[in-house]
């Protein structure tokens, strides 16, 4: 009787262990199978929309994408916006996020680079105008009255543009021509619609609307800080496992292929 009782207790204990293991395994899987919210620099829009689709296909959950200027996204996150992942177009914004304790530092990684270009409307001006706008220094010409750039206070592309202007020592002379925008895609819109004479964007932005804008000059690498895109999971996110998996997907061959498709450089 005593032996049968011990056997019964052993069986119950074994079943409880198995049940706990199955429950834990199920819980782990469920923790991964959650919708995620990604706040990303708007220059990543096309690439991240495709990577988001890859995520949804692979993990059977939604990938909610929020695009904007990196500085504005940082303010949203600092204000408590329900975000799981932050991808910025500059180290400055990610450094600030880390300084404020907003990101999980161990998940931070650089995933792509870009370059800065000067663009003009596709069918802009005559041959003389085109010749003048063959370089950033050409922006000094009186023919060019409106130059669109991102607001340096919140738009990384605007800060890079300012660095390029300082490199060529033209900022003081063109300062009154500058039209500040809320993000780099707004610069692209202004140029594509021929509402300004020129604009400064990323090479990847120009490629998105190559039939509407011309790249007239490439900024030398030495003229500005490197355009590096970092990404990290947000501190306090309920979807930390999902966030880490999204970053892994981004860094995988699938993710890199998508980034390269849209003109980003990856290692």
Describe the structure.
It is a single chain. The protein has 267 residues and is of the alpha/beta class. The chain has helices at 2-32, 45-59, 70-78, 91-99, 127-132, 156-167, 171-174, 184-192, 203-208, 240-251, 253-261, and strands at residues 36-41, 63-68, 85-87, 109-114, 116-121, 147-150, 178-181, 198-202, 213-218, 227-233. Helix 2 runs antiparallel to helix 11 (253-261) and helix 3 runs parallel beside helix 4. The longest helix is centred in the first third of the chain and has 31 residues, at 2-32.
Topology:
Blueprint: H1 2-32, E1 36-41, H2 45-59, E2 63-68, H3 70-78, E3 85-87, H4 91-99, E4 109-114, E5 116-121, H5 127-132, E6 147-150, H6 156-167, H7 171-174, E7 178-181, H8 184-192, E8 198-202, H9 203-208, E9 213-218, E10 227-233, H10 240-251, H11 253-261
Parallel strand pairs: 1-2, 1-3, 6-7, 6-8
Antiparallel strand pairs: 3-10, 4-10, 5-8, 5-9
Helix pairs in contact: 2-11, 3-4
Short structural description:
With 267 residues, this protein is of the alpha/beta class.
Key descriptive features of the protein:
D-Maltodextrin-Binding Protein, domain 2; disordered N terminus; five-stranded mixed β-sheet; alpha/beta; 267 residues; single chain; 11 helices; 20% strand; 2 domains
Number of strands: 10
How is the CATH topology of the largest domain named? D-Maltodextrin-Binding Protein, domain 2
Distance between the termini: 69 Å
The global form is elongated
**What would CATH call the class of the largest domain?**
Alpha Beta
Secondary-structure element string: HEHEHEHEEHEHHEHEHEEHH
Beta-strand percentage range: 15-25%
Strand order of the largest sheet: 2-1-3-10-4
Q: Give the integer mean of the pLDDT values.
A: 88
> Mind telling me which CATH architecture of the largest domain this is?
3-Layer(aba) Sandwich
Structural class: alpha/beta
The CATH superfamily of the largest domain bears the name: Periplasmic binding protein-like II
**Number of discrete helical segments:** 11
Helix content: 40-55%
Please summarize the sheet with the most strands.
5 strands, mixed
């Amino acid at each position: 009787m005593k032996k049968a009782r011990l056997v019964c207790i052993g069986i119950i204990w074994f079943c409880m262990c198995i049940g706990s293991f199955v429950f834990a395994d199920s819980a782990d899987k469920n923790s991964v199978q959650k919708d995620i919210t990604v706040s990303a620099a708007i220059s990543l829009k096309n690439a991240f929309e495709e990577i988001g689709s890859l995520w949804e296909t692979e993990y059977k959950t939604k990938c909610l994408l929020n695009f904007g200027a990196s500085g504005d996204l940082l303010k949203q996150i600092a204000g408590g916006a329900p975000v799981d992942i932050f991808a910025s177009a500059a180290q400055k914004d990610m450094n600030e996020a880390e300084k404020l304790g907003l990101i999980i530092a161990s998940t931070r990684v650089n995933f792509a680079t870009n370059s800065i270009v000067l663009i003009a409307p596709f069918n802009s001006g005559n041959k003389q105008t085109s010749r003048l706008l063959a370089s950033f220094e050409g922006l000094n010409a009186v023919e060019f009255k409106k130059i669109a750039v991102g607001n340096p206070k919140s738009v990384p592309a605007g800060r890079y543009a300012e660095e390029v202007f300082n490199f060529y020592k033209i900022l003081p002379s063109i300062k009154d021509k500058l039209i500040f925008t809320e993000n780099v895609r707004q610069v692209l819109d202004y140029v594509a619609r021929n509402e300004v004479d020129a604009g400064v964007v990323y090479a990847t932005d120009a490629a998105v609307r190559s039939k509407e804008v011309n790249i007239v000059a490439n900024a030398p690498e030495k003229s500005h800080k490197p355009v590096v895109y970092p990404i990290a999971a947000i501190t306090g996110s309920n979807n930390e496992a999902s966030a880490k998996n999204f970053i892994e997907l981004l860094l995988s061959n699938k993710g890199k292929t998508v980034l390269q498709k849209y003109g980003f450089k990856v290692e």
